[in-house]
Request: fold
Amino acid sequence: MNKSWVASHTFHYSRFSDIGYLVEEKQKKDLKISLCLPTLNEEKTIAKEIIIMKSELMTRYPLLDEIVVIDSGSTDETVKVAKSFDAKVYLADELLPDQGSYRGKGENLWKALYVTTGDIIVYLDADIKNIHHRFCYGLLGPLLAYDNIKYTKAFYDRPIAIGKSKIRPTGGGRVTELVIRPLFSLFFPELTQILQPLSGEYAGYREVFEKIPFPIGYGVETSMILDICEKWGLDVIAQVDLERRVHRNQDTKALGRMSFVVIKTFLKRLENLGLIELKKEIYDEIIQYQLIKNDITPNAVKMVGIERPPIIGIPEYREKFGHTANPSSIRLASKEKTT
Amino acid sequence: MPPYLKNITSYVEGIRRIRETIIANIVFLGQIPAPTFQEKSRAIKFMDRLVENQVDECTTDGYQNPIGIIRGKKSDLSPIMLVAHLDTMFARDVDHNYTITENAIRGPGVLDNTVGVAVLASLPAVLKHLEVSFDSDIILAGVIQSLGKGNLRGMRHLVKTWPTPIRGAICVEGVELGRLCYYSEGMIRCDITCSISEEKGVEYRFKPNAILVLHELINQIMAIRLPQKPRSRVIIGKIKGGQKHGIIAYEATLGLEIQSDTDRMVKTIFEDIKDMVTGISHEFGVRLKLETISNATASRLRYNHPLVKAAGQVMEALGIQTVGEPSESELSLLLSKRIPAVTLGLTRGENYHLPESQMEIEPMFTGIAQVIGVLQAIDSGVCDE
Reply:
């Protein structure tokens, strides 16, 4: 296990707080940068994210070239609010109509690749209550400052109170500690160095995102790490400490459903890599129970593990971005060369 | 038409075009808790935002009031001061995350006075965008320790120690767009606390109830015959006390404010209330403590003072309905130092002093244009009589 990765590929956002330098690097490398905010009923937080990013990283410093909102069909005022602050807003269902439509964050991220124009894409969850532009420039810093880094992932401060003191965290949330980290420890120990593999904030070069599949739902963060690592090695990944993040807390049942999808995505990757062999098809339903008066009632939720293929193979995308070469050819250094 | 009215209506659209800068400042500053005496973090952020918006000079005075200076074209002219208080009435443990909707911003303290502070922090960028410059230096002062027991300490220090004459001043408050404050009443704000001993013993067998003692005091205060001239009033604004339904109250506190057009009358009423407190204390055998929280002296500009007239013209040109009213805040200190000054409101809103305080975004652009118009009026010499 390469234990030095965590030392050499972990950054604090403040290291990149000289935004002028990042703009210089961006211009030197002739890059365009897109910010994508996937939404589903985020009327309370979306405006703040758009306004702060626009004010700090478009008006004050020309670091971002566009802010794109991909909405999954919000029933609240999310779309109206986002449009009122001049973000480019797309409804996921209306994008790439020939490819069909699914509901999920991964679907939005995948379709965002088609409508954004940036060479680098920053994905931020739209439910961050304490949004600050460090969420964006912190993730962009390693991508612009280091030529070998092609994908960055956020991690946060999650203080755990012990008596009167607080310890600085290295861990993630409940699903990370109870599901992902044990699985990584069992099969890919070096990936345990990624402190919060499920964090919803990451950025990367288009040439990376366009060549990996996107599960349509919760599994997208897990698959992204596994696929990028498998294709190009851990060296192209960096993680950035963005300090505190305040967001909605999910109940245990919701986390159970999330864990179900994450495990399913993981098992699929293990099978593809030949690490395990499943003797039968695994099920698509998570069954959770609730006690109503004296009755124990099952609640089965179907969660089909649909994945979108690498978008570089989609004709509409290839036409728009002028890809004429074989989709399998990649400009990025191969894993063999980087390791 | 005076020169300061020429382009005033076009400013509104120009300001709206950089709304993200202004709203971002409201969020960045407002999300930092700043209860009175604990404004340090917000003051630092205010300075940071001034620096980031390329204000010419940034400093703190001897009382740690953060100050930015936009340099004017003529160094021989006295400066113009823009003031907004930094402190809010919300404790640190209140959730300070702001919410923005299409037309409004919601969060504790947004109206009093985050929006005022944020407009000061945004002003260098706004003026640059509008290509507006001044002959005088513009001082942007975020003052600390204004509210309640702060008793305008930051502002007192600022006006007392500022080294040069001040040409004119504007105090910026969140609400209400249309207010034009050009006078302040004399005021004393005080708390009266009644404490009953909890000791057991024969002498304490029939204990008075602290709430009922204050009730008696209120009755006596209400019986004071207040003159119509000078206009005077006593406002009973706060009361709290007691522990449980079935136990007499051992402690209760009353908060009141005496207001009058003259300082002499305020003092007279205050002395009357002090006598009542002493009398009731002896009569009921309880401890009654009268504590002065803050005070302001009565001072005013004439209604036909050129600054008041110019401010009225600016507001009329922008279609703002003007309401003249007194202000007991920073304005009273400026006026008492004979510095021509007015207080202006920036926008409209609701739940002014609640955690879910909410401001409207759109009227703020007109409110900012109004401030710039009055600044230009002062810069053109309306206060130089």
Remarks:
- Chain A has one domain: 8-322.
- Residues 8-322 of chain A form a domain with the Spore Coat Polysaccharide Biosynthesis Protein SpsA; Chain A fold (CATH 3.90.550.10).
- Chain A has a mean pLDDT of 88.
- The CA atoms of residues 250 and 256 of chain A lie 10 Å apart.
